[in-house]
Specification:
The chain has four helices and eight strands. By secondary structure, it is α+β, with helices and mostly antiparallel strands. It is globular. Strand 2 and strand 3 form a beta hairpin. Helix 2 packs antiparallel against helix 3.
Length: 152
């Protein structure tokens, strides 16, 4: 596990018919608060591929992940041994094509679609809240999301 506290996250999105977006959030296993699917980087995997794996394992989300970050946020992770690790999380946008009925952490988490501004109200990390609010205003103008839509 990295000492520096760098993590990756997927921001699973779906585009609605009216052009607006929704973001898929999951509950954390320990506190049950709403979070992005995230985790530590994985040896031998590009950061966005690791984020894609987290989205599959934590939310059962399958789709296209972008290689360009949509942003970063900070939070404090409390490890199993009680150690406190300040973390920076790099967030990669993902267009969700389907949600699996059964996935690795289904029994440990809930998942739910939110409008970005509603998701922003539910997270405790200020940077992540700001990132979600910016996505709410002009989701398809965000360069990383636009590139991802072209590729998918």
């Amino acid at each position: 596990m990295p000492v520096e506290g760098e993590q990756i996250a997927a921001m699973p999105l779906r585009i609605l018919k009216d052009g607006s977006v929704e973001v898929l959030m999951v509950t954390s296993r320990d506190t049950g608060r709403w979070v992005m699917p995230k985790g530590w980087e994985m040896d031998g995997k590009k950061p966005w591929r690791a984020a894609e794996i987290e989205a599959l394992e934590e939310a059962g989300a399958v789709g296209y992940i972008g290689s360009e970050m949509v942003g970063t946020y900070r939070y404090t992770k409390i490890m199993n041994d009680g150690a406190i690790v300040p973390c920076v999380v790099r967030v990669f946008p993902m267009i969700v094509e389907k949600l699996k009925r059964n996935w690795k952490e289904k029994g440990q988490r809930k998942r739910r679609w939110f409008k970005p501004k509603d998701a922003a109200k539910r997270v405790i990390e200020e940077d992540l809240s700001d990132l979600l609010k910016s996505l709410h205003k002009k989701p398809l103008k965000e360069p990383a999301v636009r590139e991802l839509l072209k590729a998918s």
